[in-house]
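Q: C-alpha cells for this one, please.
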Amino acid sequence: MDRAQIVHENFLRRVADGDLPEGRAPSGPLDPEGAVGIFRAGCLSRALDRQSRAMQKAGQGFYTIGSSGHEGMAAVAAALRPTDMAFLHYRDAAFQIARADQVPGQTILWDMLLSFAASSDDPISGGRHKVLGSKALNIPPQTSTIASHLPKAVGAAYSVGMARRHRPEHAELPKDSIVYCSFGDASANHSTAQGAFNTASWTAYQGVPLPLLFVCEDNGIGISVKTPKGWIAASFRDRPGMKYFHCDGLDIFETFRVSQEAARYVRTQRKPAFLHIRTVRLYGHAGADMPTTYMPKAEVEADEANDPLLRAVRLLNESGAMGLDAALSVYEETCDRVARVADEAVTRPRLKTAQDVMASLVPPKRSCRPTNGPTPEAREKAFGGDLRAMEEPQIMSRLINWSLTDLMLEHPEIVMMGEDVGRKGGVYGVTQKLQARFGPDRVVDTLLDEQSILGMGIGMAQNGFVPIPEIQFLAYLHNAEDQLRGEAATLPFFSNGQYTNPMVLRIAGLGYQKGFGGHFHNDNSLAVLRDIPGLILAVPSSGADAARMMRECVRLAREEQRLVVFLEPIALYPMRDLHEAGDNGWMTCYPDPSERIAFQEVGVEGDGDDLVIVTYGNGRYLSTQAAGKLKDEGVKARVIDLRWLSPLPEAALLDAVKGAKRVLIVDETRRSGGVAEALMALCAEHLDVPFARDVARDSFIATGPAYAATMPSVESITEAARALIGGKP
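A: Here is the predicted structure, written as C-alpha cells:
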C-alpha cells in the first residue's frame, strides 16, 4: 500500500475512533466559520493530491508534486487580502484554495483539476503546465521552481512603494497591498534565495519601503536531504532589516494569529518580514518518490501521525466549531466530489499542435495612453546645454543617453536600475546625468547582484512599470540568466498571456575593447539569449541607430509587453573615426525624438551586388571599412546590418540580399553556437548563390595586444571576400 493510501486510511480510522494528536488548546482571533473554511480548504487540497496520483496512474494526469502536510497554508491565506500579490511555493494548493474562498465566483476545484489534466481549458496556463496561479486571485503562475521567484517578489514589493510616488498607467496593486512569497526550507539555501533575502534586508536597512512577507514552509527535508534542526531559525532570526516570526503550521489557530501579526507588521511598517512555519511532508516528494527508501520507516510514520488535518479536527472539535462526525463527513464528501469532477475534467480538450503550445509565447498587446513626446520646455529643462550639442555629430554612448532622457521624459513609468547607473552614470558614462534629471526613485543604484537587478525589473513590470535594468557587462549576465529564461520569458507562456513582465534590459557587451578586461569585460557569446523563446535581442551599430532602436524597444515593451534585451557594443561607445584618424566617420547626429527603426527592419548601406556582407554590431563597423578597401579593388559591395538578432529578421534579410552574386556573413560571436550558424542555414535553405562566413574562434577573449586576435578583422573580412569572389568581381 502506498503512503498516500496509508495516510488516508489513518485519517478515516483515527477520526472515527476519536484518536487525535494531542496539542495546545485552540486560541486566538480565528472565528468558528473561518476555522471551518480553513479545514475545508485543507481537505480539498488533500483530496486533489490523491486524485492527481490516480489520474497519473490512469494516464490522465501529469503532475504529482503535492501539498499534503502543508494544508495549514490555508490559514495564512485567510490572514491576507486577495489583493496581496502572492508568489507561491509549489506546495501551496491549500493557500490558493483558501484565497479562492475570498473572491466571489471562483470554481477552484474545476480549475485545479483542469490543470492536473493539462487541459487547454485550464484558466491559468491553458494546458501548458500544471501551475498554481490565477489572475483573479492575484497569484502569478509558478511551477516547481527552486527559489527563482524570490527576486521578482522583492521587485514587486519595491514597486508598491514606488507606485505611491509615481503611479503607472497599468498599475495592478493597491497602494496598501503587501507582496507574499513562499518557499521551502531547502530552497532557502539556494543562492537565488539568499540574494533575495540580502537585497530585501539591504533595502529595508536604508529605510526604503518594502512591504514583503517571506514565508518559509519548513518540513525539514528537501527531497531526501534533511535540513539541520534549527537551521532556518538560526539563519533568519536576527537578519538586519527583516523581522522574524514563527508559528506551528500544524495548528491552524496559531498559524492564523501569527500570520495576521506578520501581515499587519509588513502592511503598517512597510518593511519585510520572515514568517517561519513548521510543516510536515506527507507521501514523499512526488508520486514516484518512496520516502522509506531513504528515511527510517519510524520517521515516516511519525510525520504521518502529525497529519495537520488530524490536528485541525481536534482543534475544531475543542473550539466547538465542528464535531468529529461532521469533520469526517466533510473529508469524505470532499474526496467523493473531487473524484466525480475529475471524471469530467479528464474529458476536456488538450493542446495538440505546436501552434497551440506556442500561442502564448508572445504576450498580447495592450492599449496605452497616447503621448506626443516631451514638451520643448521639459526638454530644455532636462537637457540644458546638451540641446545645442545635438546639432553636431556625437559618439554612440552620448546618443543612447539622450534617447533615454527623452524616453523618460515622455513615459513616467520608465524606471532604470543597476550597479553604478545613478551617481556615477555607468561605467562608460551612458547614464550620466539621468539621476540628476529624474531623481534616485527613477534611476536606482542597486547593490552588486545581477539576480536581484533582474528580479527588481521583473517584479516592477508586473505592477505596471516599464523597467530598464542594466547589466554592467555581458559576462555578468550568466550569474542571473535564469531570471530571463526561467521567469521573465516563461511568465506569459505559463499564464496564457494573462501575466507579463515587459522590460528593456540594457547590457554592455561584445568584444574589441582595446586593452581592458579580457573575457569578463569582452564576452562575445549571445547563445544564452538567442535560444530563449519570446525574447527580442537588439544590437545597434551606430549612435543614430542606437537611439532609434532604443525608442522602438521601449515601444515594444510598453505597448506590446515584450521582453527585450538591448545589447550595446562597448567598443563602439566612443568610436569616432571610420577610415582614418580624425575623419569622424562613425559619429552621427541625434535623430529627432519621433524617429524609430521598426522591429525586424534591417539596415542597408551601399548598392553593390558583387558581394553582400551580412553582419551587425562591431561587424558592421569593420565590414564598412572592408567594403571601402574592396571598392578600391573594383568590388561593388553592400553591407546589411541585421540589428535584430532574435528573432532574426529573415524576411527582411532575404529581401535585402536580392540580386547579390555572393553573400559573406561576418559574425563576431563564436563559430560554435554563434549567430552565423542560423544565417548559414538560412542561406542554404533560400539562396542559390555562393555564401561563406568569417566568424570568431571558439575561444575566450584575451587582455592586451591580442584582444581582437580571435575575432573577425578588416583584414580577415577582405580575405574572406576575395576567396569567395575568387578574383572575379
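A few notes: The first strand starts at residue 86 and ends at 87. The chain is about 40% helix and 15% strand.
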